[in-house]
Amino acid sequence: MRRSFIPLAAALVGAALLLPFHSAMADQTAAPALTVSLASPAQRAWPETVPASGWLKPWQEAIIASETSGLRITDVLVDVGSVVTKGQTLVRLSQDSVLADLRKQAAAVETAKANLAKAKADADRARQLRTSGALSAQNITERLTDEQTAKASLESEEAALESQKIKLAQTTITAVDDGLITSRSAELGAVVSSGTELFHLVRQQRVEWQAEVSARYLSRISEGLTAHINGPDERPIQGKVRLVGPSVSTGTGRAIVYVALPVDVHPPVGLYVTGSIELTTTPALTVPEAAIVYRDGINYVFTAEENRRVRRIRVETGRRNNGEVEIISGIDQSAKVVTSGGAFLSDNDLVNIAG
Which residue intervals define the domain YknX-like C-terminal permuted SH3-like in the entry (predicted)? Predict the structure, then answer.
């Protein structure tokens, strides 16, 4: 009985000694699943951001209207989308009746000047004869009064002439500022009234983002902070906070933050866009976005061990910026993270390490 036990024990001991050898041989002969690159998480200083959304609207809008009445539009020189400069002619009105009135008033001024010259001559003569007794006191007073009346009449006619000149100038309607025409109601042949709206103009082509943010962030938002906007065609636009709205909507609990866009950026007004406003800068542990593996609604990364096998680790992610993702929990800065190809790996896969 003892003789049969000794060979059996020896066989078991030999098998146990061979297990590490066979395991090492298996690791050497197993085919690596993939060749991967590794990187350690980076420590960044990232700004905390506030999500926002709102409309792109004109910084200031000017209404161009007629200042005169009863005249017909003879020329419309611009249309919607036209970029205009301050003082540029936009519309011309009929001048025929205005020119006729102007000539008539100019003649009235000349008549008033002649009347004043005659009245002044009579008054000067009355002053010379005042002490001689050749003219009665009543006659002298009448001549002096006629002179004053003639002066007042000339001033009145000259003022009326200036008024006619202004009316003539008003037959040419010009741009009040540099800008972009966004609407037009001026129609050729239409007879305008005083105050008739003809154009809308976006002053200096400046557009701003009226961003709605949660009221809980208002105390931390101030003039000059940087805002990032997802512009048309997903083109990023950077702006600066110009003004923080003084009131909060009772219906939504949100406030409007006015963000000025660069003067050389002219996105279409009326678009609803999203973006964010930068607050304070805080540290962030980040990995490349390609290192994140999303499975069953959970974020993972793969880390490489010393034996060239990978381990799948669940992580909690935060902010994203410039192709990197913030890691809130799951790994630390000492980890060796697989930077790409994680979607093709499984836990405990053998890999080759590039480089």
Answer: 284-349
CA distance between the termini of the chain: 60
107-147 pLDDT, tens digit each: 999 999 999 999 999 888 888 877 777 778 888 888 889 99
Please give the Cα distance from 331 to 314 (Å, whole number). Answer: 9
Domain count, the chain: 3
Query: Are residues 177 and 78 both part of a single domain?
Result: yes
Q: What is the pLDDT of residue 233?
A: 78
pLDDT tens digit sequence for 30-86: 677 788 999 999 999 988 889 999 999 999 999 999 999 999 999 999 999 999 999
Per-residue pLDDT tens for 306-342? 888 999 999 999 888 889 999 999 999 999 999 988 8
Structure tokens at 57: 């609207």
Token readout for 352 is 């080759």
Which pTM does this prediction carry? Answer: 0.62
State the Cα–Cα distance between residues 273 and 269, nearest whole angstrom.
11
Closest C-alpha to 285, from 345, 349, 329, 255: 329
Which residues, 6+ apart, have CB-to-CB distance to 187 below 8 Å? Answer: 73, 76
- Note down the domain range covering 135: 98-167
Same domain as 315, residue 297: yes
The verdict on residue 12 lying in a domain is no
Res 341: pLDDT:
85
Alpha-carbon gap, residue 199 to 196, rounded angstroms = 10
Cβ atoms of 226 and 238 within 8 Å: the answer is yes
- Residues 225, 241 contacting (CB under 8 angstroms): yes
Q: Same domain, yes or no, for 141 and 222?
A: no
